[in-house]
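Take the subject:
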Amino acid sequence: MQQDGSSLSRYASRLRQCASEEQHKKPPARVEAVAAQTSGYTTELVNSPERFVELSADWDALASQQRDALMLHGWYRAAMEAQELTTGDLAIVILRKADRLVAAAPLQRAKAGLFERLVPVDAFAGEPDRLLFEDEVALQQLGAACASLGKPILIRRLDLPQTATNLFAKSLRSRAFLKMQQRHSSNVLHLPSRLDELEASVSASRRRTLRRKYKAARQSYGQLDAQLLVPEPAAVDQHLARFAAIEHASWKGQQGTSLLSDPRMRRFVSSLAHEFAASGKLAMTFLTLGGRDAAGKLMLSVGGCWNEIKIGYDEQFASCSPGIILTHETMRHAIAQGISTYRFLGLAEDWQAHWPTRNGEDRLLASYPFTQAGIAAGVLDGWRAMRRIVTR
């Protein structure tokens, strides 16, 4: 403990020294709401939901290149609505080149003690955080624009390849102390084009396990049925209510994290569902055992990829693993629909190893500029880290 305390003290001292040195330098140019030219790029700080709505078409033109629903404009707009963000809450940095949107960092202001820092707009959702960029040069310019804001930045799950992360971090590091570390992993499955290839891709032992689960479900409950829905907007609320009842009957209901227990997440998922259903990009699957709902999934579809956004199952059916059965049935539906990629929700878990998934890693990135706010953020994060060590 003495060593940890000394390290924290040295770190705070170093930040104060850097802040003092920065005071004698020419202050960095800020990213303003009014555009400013930098190396052929036009930068803008979007700080109102209304202005963000105006960016819809340009945003999706850039995001759609990645085949990731969690980059689309509707995803972030739903996150803003769920948190009831207003003008001044947002700090979305965008870059244009020749009037074309080429990069964006979807950030918002968040209070941390007595200071303010920037975090992803969708940080509360617990999913990996994204940056949008056309190429590496645009990503570097985006990092420089974020650094020029002079505020601490905390991205807990930055989903970028190592090379791209290093490029973005390099721009931030020019004006801040930077902390990076590997954090979590998530799974993605590249689906074959035929059902028999899906079965063949599962190991022999896993196939036997799946057969036992199917057999146990049919022996205990009789009929087993998996249904795929692509609901019309008018039917979304009805199907969401069905899913919410299933999810609430699991441990999520007991721990207060289900949609019925969490108003913010309920608003978020409802907004997402209506947004994506309007364009036919919402998919839902349900598993019924003996005519009763046992499990459900919500997915967003874009560019041949399904992204899980919510999963749930009723605890009374836990003995036959309804979540695993529904996942396998969902993959069968996905192949029949011509879907080529399936992204699992949240963190990688052991049960997902039933299928030949690929593991993706995300990283924590925290920047502490050489300012009073940066010093305060660094000290606060250091203290929290020591408390976690002591608690363990």
The chain is about 40% helix and 25% strand.
